[in-house]
Amino acid sequence: MLRLIILIVCCVFYQVDCQSVAQQCLTEQIRNNAGNTRQLAIQQSPETTTLNAFRSICSNFDSYIRCFQSRLPGSIDSTDRFLTLMFDYRAMWTAYRGLCSDLNVLATRIRCLLSTPEVRRCYDIFNQGVTQVVNLQSQSRLDEYGLRNLACNVSVQRYQCETQVYSFCDAQAGEIMQSFFYAGVPPTCRDYTGTYSRYTHMYGSGEITSISNLLFTLPIFLIISKWL
Ligand SMILES: *[C@@H]1O[C@H](CO)[C@@H](O)[C@H](O)[C@H]1NC(C)=O
User: Fold this and answer.
1) What is the domain range of residue 137?
2) How far apart are CA 44 and CA 37, in angstroms?
3) Is the residue at 16 inside a domain?
């Protein structure tokens, strides 16, 4: 009882995270966008729960990403501090834009995304990496640049591991999740690890791409204008 009161006091008055930002944002997203009033009525299969979570996110993925954007900086949770190093609004937007456009394809293969011992092994390795990064950060033993590169490696290692598991279940499920994961990392991380996402090419005409396009077209324009 006392623990419960302390928890509530912490949540309400000190805005300390009682859950990680990822949990908070997903819970609120499902609550706000369930669109299905029978959600709570019956116990659902893991497949239905997973698919409904994706559908809630996709019904308004921009608000879901903004939830991360606004809350991550203030969070003291260790997973959140790791996520802050990897968070890129534009990249995450592109990742969900792609995933949500493929949700109907993914829906027929949703059993492939359920938790298995193989996926949990990927998470265990990932969690060790997260702990390592957060420890290095709190001991100031690595600068921001080094931390971001390490967090990038740790994330990409998890995505490779997970993609392998999903691909083994179904090739297309694996491809969709791979495109989703690699679109969601910052562009610098994609370059650093030599990873590629179909979604980035389809939907990722963000700031970085338009700047590089501008830098590319500017010399051509200058050359042409000299001829005129
Ligand atoms: C990330 O992985 C690459 C390739 O394995 C390695 O060369 C690099 O040193 C790693 N970077 C960090 C910061 O661990």
Assistant:
1) 117-228
2) 13
3) no
Pocket test for ligand 1, best of 86, 153, 193 (most atoms within 8 A of CB): 153
Query: pTM score, two decimals?
Result: 0.80
pLDDT along the chain (228 residues), means of 10: 46 58 91 64 83 94 95 91 95 97 96 95 96 95 95 97 97 97 97 96 69 53 53
When divided into structural domains, the chain yields a total of 1
- What sign does the dihedral 96-101-104-109 (CA atoms) show? negative
Q: How far apart are CA 167 and CA 175, in angstroms?
A: 7
Helices (H), the chain: 2-13, 21-33, 46-59, 61-71, 78-86, 89-101, 103-107, 117-138, 144-169, 171-184, 187-193, 198-203, 207-227
> Does 220 reside within a domain?
yes
Q: How many angstroms does the Cα of residue 192 sit away from the middle of ligand 1?
A: 9
Residue 156 falls inside a structural domain:
yes
C-beta 63 within 6 A of ligand 1: no
Residue 37 domain-assigned? no
